[in-house]
Write a structure and sequence with these properties.
Elements (H helix, E strand, L loop, with lengths): L6 H18 L7 E6 L7 E4 L13 E4 L5 E3 L6 H13 L5 E5 L4 H5 L19 E4 L9 H11 L4 E4 L3 E6 L2 H20 L8 H11 L2 H14 L4
Parallel strand pairs: 6-7
Antiparallel strand pairs: 1-2, 1-5, 2-3, 3-4, 5-8, 7-8
Helix pairs in contact: 2-4, 5-7
């Protein structure tokens, strides 16, 4: 993983991310996953093992998989769709070190509209020209082929709306992917609540985009999330 993060730091962020999602009320049915590329073995990544509530996630509950789906470190079964989605994305994008997806109160219904993100709020500008739309009816990703199509649709962007499924975000770090996800959920909420949105221009959205999301500020936002929800 790029940067100076150690494995212990990455795993700590990953556990805290699952707990943040759980504290918000997401993943109560185990319907979601956050991945982290291993900083020592870039061809492997970590996921939370199946049947562990997000609110109770610990480092001991994490499993490292290789690109073949074999367990390298840790013990326990991993959600198969999680591997099928995350592996192709992290394999295709060396600049990405994490991805986040779960079913949410606003993101999932918004995905059923099969509409792109429009610059109707300040936060929406973060995703201006940086959020793909996966217009595909495979909502249960049963194999790597489905995940590969998602990765291809994502391209060089950092977020994607999975039709009739929900939201997925990525980042250079776990913190980056999680902050993007929380923000995109709020953007989806705005899209569903506003009756007659009037987007700002593409030029104005582009100008706003450049200053709204910076990797140098991600850590502070992530720590604020953790503090807000009481996550150590």
């Amino acid at each position: 993983m790029k940067g100076s993060s150690s494995r212990s730091e990455v795993l700590s962020d990953l556990v805290r991310s699952y707990r943040i999602f759980g504290a918000i009320g997401w993943g109560d049915l185990g319907d979601g996953h956050i991945s982290a590329r291993d900083p020592e073995r870039n061809d492997c990544f970590w996921l939370l093992k199946d049947s562990v509530p997000f609110t109770q996630a610990s480092v001991d509950d994490l499993v490292m998989l290789n690109q073949s789906g074999d367990t390298v470190l840790g013990e326990g079964r991993v959600n198969a769709p999680a591997f099928n989605i995350h592996c192709p994305i992290l394999t295709a994008r060396a600049d990405l070190n994490a991805a986040a997806h779960t079913h949410t109160p606003w993101g999932t219904p918004f995905s059923a509209e099969v509409q792109p993100i429009l610059p109707i709020t300040q936060e929406a500008c973060i995703f201006h020209d940086d959020c793909a739309l996966f217009d595909d009816e495979e909502v249960q990703i049963r194999g790597l082929e489905g995940g590969t199509r998602i990765a291809q649709c994502l391209g060089h962007k950092h977020a994607i709306i999975l039709r009739n499924h929900g939201l997925l975000t990525t980042g250079a770090s776990v913190a980056s992917a999680v902050v993007r996800f929380v923000t995109l959920e709020r953007v989806a909420e705005a899209h569903l609540k506003v009756r007659n949105p009037v987007p700002i221009s593409s030029t104005a959205a582009t100008q706003a985009h450049s200053g709204l999301f910076r990797e140098s500020r991600v850590r502070a936002k992530f720590e604020y999330l953790a503090e807000f929800y009481g996550i150590d």
